[in-house]
Design brief:
The protein is of the alpha+beta class and about 250 residues long. It contains eight helices and ten strands. The longest helix has 26 residues.
């Protein structure tokens, strides 16, 4: 059935599917993992990095980017598609600031990006964007409450306390549901993000990138040394818990 209806983007199958949109969502599921966590007064974003070639400059491959001083974005899916959306979002942020003399709200830019993604699901001669995004930031030019939004290739957007997109996102989402607590501190939010990443990333901190946002401050990335130290503490705690459990069973 799918082969008869997946050639044209604008044609529904008899059971109500738009197969090109579903294929775009599959591209997201095959992309590297991205996690967003909202704390009491902070936002933490963590992503899985693909290992780069020995001679490649790793700074040219970033999955966490700034849209404005108070809004940032992480994505899962096709990097080339993400670059197009990121550029459009940055232009909209600056246009909004120039027009109304205020920065965008996080909901505004999430709705804007979702609108672009939706347009590419009902126009001939185009294809859907093969990415989902996590948009994080603070309203009122960085002085408001923390916000975390997710958009997907179908053009829907929603607000979250913590969520994951990309490869193994279902496993990580279940982990977040079990371990998320309201009003977490910065340390607790970073710890939860790293624990969630380590649930599915076997190579440890070298293939991770984590960034934190505070009110009134721009995006701050954790350096490799901090990531390695925090990951080691988490791994040691897991090992102790495992040994304790094994002794209890014995």
């Amino acid at each position: 059935m799918a082969s008869s209806y997946d050639r044209a983007l604008t044609t529904f199958s008899p059971d109500g599917h738009l197969f090109q949109v579903e294929y775009a969502m599959e591209a997201v599921r095959k992309g590297t993992l991205a996690i967003g966590v909202r704390g009491a007064n902070c936002l933490v974003v963590g992503v899985e990095k693909k290992s780069t070639a020995k001679l490649q400059d790793p700074r040219t491959v970033q999955k966490i980017v700034k849209l404005d001083e108070h809004v940032s974005l992480a994505y899962a899916g096709l990097t080339a598609d993400a670059r197009v959306l990121i550029d459009r979002a940055r232009i909209e942020c600056q246009s909004h600031r120039l027009t109304v003399e205020d920065g965008v709200t996080v909901e505004y830019i999430a709705r804007y990006l979702a609108g672009i993604q939706q347009k590419y699901t009902q126009s001939g001669g185009v294809r859907p964007f093969g990415i989902s995004t996590l948009i994080v930031g603070f309203d009122n030019d960085g002085q408001g409450a923390p916000r975390l939004y997710q958009t997907d290739p179908s053009g829907t957007f929603s607000q979250w306390k913590a969520t994951a997109i990309g490869k193994n996102s279902k496993t990580v989402q279940e982990f977040l549901e079990k371990n998320y607590e309201a009003d977490m501190s910065v340390e607790q939010s970073v710890n939860l993000t790293l624990r969630a990443l380590l649930e599915v990333i076997e190579s440890g901190s070298k293939n991770m990138e984590v960034a934190v946002m505070h009110p009134g401050r721009t995006l701050e990335r954790l350096n490799d040394e901090d990531l390695e130290a925090l990951s080691k503490v988490i791994e040691d705690a897991k090992e102790k818990e495992k040994n304790k459990k094994n002794k209890g069973e014995a």
